[in-house]
């Protein structure tokens, strides 16, 4: 009897466990299981040689920029630009090397930041090393040896100097391009969603519109330039149309494909519960088609940047496309590269925002989306 009593006391009661601490929820358990599986599939391993080589590469870039003399055959203007920003380049390279070395130290000692540091050392070490080696090659082949001949290839200091010197016109051009891109993308998105839903939902509309879509949609925006700037009252409205057209095609095709691929059982269940009409479109078709719609938005964003630069080159006297054409006309290649750097950063930021928004909206299928 005494043994039974002791056993009963030794077995933890669910109520006692709940009193000692809250039981993990289903989401927390799933998160822990996912983290454990992720650690098994992609173990976090720090390679000291790679991390140390990354620090050394950035130190070497700073040392080459500061102590190796410039090529004597460089034009005087190029030499002045390089000397103007060499100090800044050296400081940036030393800061990157110091930050990376500090993360390396954090990853090797116990503490609350160790997991964060190990994660970055595992995933970013190759990128830090590759970027450092690229800048060493860039600096050595342009400013120091002239292996890549000027003016078509410029040193990083020359591009930095142009970025600072042209910051006013670059900021104005960036604002103009973002406004034009936002208006054209919004118009194309709304038109594409409306067309895609219509031809995906109504067979008669699909019969008439889909063949036109197949023939007109793939035509590049450059081919429409002569017609657009004649038919539209202003070059700005023509540019908006060109961007909207490049967005409309992929959004329409992917929205239609997403709606047509919704399982019939979804509609049967909803109709059994009394749903009909626009409720089926708004609450069944569109949510189920969202993965395809985001794929279309990804394709449309790239196409819209192409149309933006084309439109600004041919008719709109402002924007990054106009700035690139302006710099090319004067043979100002450092300024041209500075504009390209801004355009690259804008494209990367726009795609990153799109991916984050997609991950938030499609969080219910987080592990199923791979692009």
UniProtKB/TrEMBL annotation:
Its main location: membrane. InterPro entries: MetI-like (IPR000515), MetI-like_sf (IPR035906). PANTHER family: ABC TRANSPORTER PERMEASE PROTEIN MJ0413-RELATED, ALKANE SULFONATE ABC TRANSPORTER-RELATED, MEMBRANE SUBUNIT. It is a multi-pass membrane protein. Belongs to the binding-protein-dependent transport system permease family. This is ABC transporter permease subunit. It comes from the Bacteria. SUPFAM superfamilies: MetI-like. Residues 174-355 form the ABC transmembrane type-1 domain. The keyword Zinc does not apply. It holds the Pfam family BPD_transp_1. GO terms for biological process: transmembrane transport. Keywords: Cell membrane, Membrane, Transmembrane, Transmembrane helix, Transport. It is found in: Cell membrane. One of its GO terms (cellular component) is plasma membrane. It comes from Gryllotalpicola protaetiae. The chain crosses the membrane at residues 46-68, 88-109, 178-202, 208-232, 239-259, 279-298, 336-357.
């Amino acid at each position: 009897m005494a043994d039974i009593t002791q056993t009963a006391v030794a077995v933890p009661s669910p109520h006692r466990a709940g009193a000692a601490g809250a039981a993990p929820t289903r989401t927390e358990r799933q998160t822990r299981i996912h983290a454990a599986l992720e650690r098994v599939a992609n173990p976090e391993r720090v390679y000291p040689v790679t991390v140390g080589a990354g620090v050394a590469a950035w130190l070497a870039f700073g040392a080459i920029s500061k102590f190796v003399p410039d090529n004597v055959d460089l034009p005087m203007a190029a030499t002045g630009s390089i000397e103007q920003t060499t100090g800044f380049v050296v400081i940036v390279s030393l800061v990157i090397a110091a930050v990376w070395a500090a993360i390396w130290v954090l990853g090797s000692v116990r503490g609350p930041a160790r997991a964060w540091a190990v994660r970055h050392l595992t995933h970013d070490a190759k990128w830090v090393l590759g970027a450092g080696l690229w800048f060493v090659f860039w600096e050595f082949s342009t400013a120091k040896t002239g292996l890549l001949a000027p003016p078509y290839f410029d040193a990083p200091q020359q591009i930095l100097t142009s970025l600072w010197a042209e910051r006013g016109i670059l900021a104005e051009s960036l604002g103009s391009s973002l406004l034009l891109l936002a208006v054209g993308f919004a118009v194309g998105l709304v038109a594409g969603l409306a067309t895609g839903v219509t031809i995906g939902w109504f067979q008669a509309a699909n019969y008439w519109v889909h063949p036109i879509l197949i023939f007109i949609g793939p035509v590049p925006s450059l081919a429409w330039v002569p017609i657009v700037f004649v038919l539209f009252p202003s070059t700005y409205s023509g540019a908006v149309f060109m961007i909207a057209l490049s967005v409309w095609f992929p959004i329409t095709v992917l929205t239609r494909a997403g709606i047509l691929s919704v399982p019939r059982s979804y509609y049967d269940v909803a109709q059994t519960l009394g749903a009909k009409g626009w409720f089926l479109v708004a609450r069944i078709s569109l949510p189920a088609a969202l993965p395809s719609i985001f794929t279309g938005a990804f394709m449309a964003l790239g196409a819209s940047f192409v149309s933006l630069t084309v439109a600004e080159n041919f008719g709109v006297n402002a924007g990054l496309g106009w700035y690139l054409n302006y710099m090319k006309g004067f043979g100002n290649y450092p300024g041209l590269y500075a504009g390209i750097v801004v355009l690259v950063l804008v494209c990367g930021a726009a795609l990153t925002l799109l991916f984050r928004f997609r991950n938030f909206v499609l969080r219910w299928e987080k592990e199923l989306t791979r692009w």
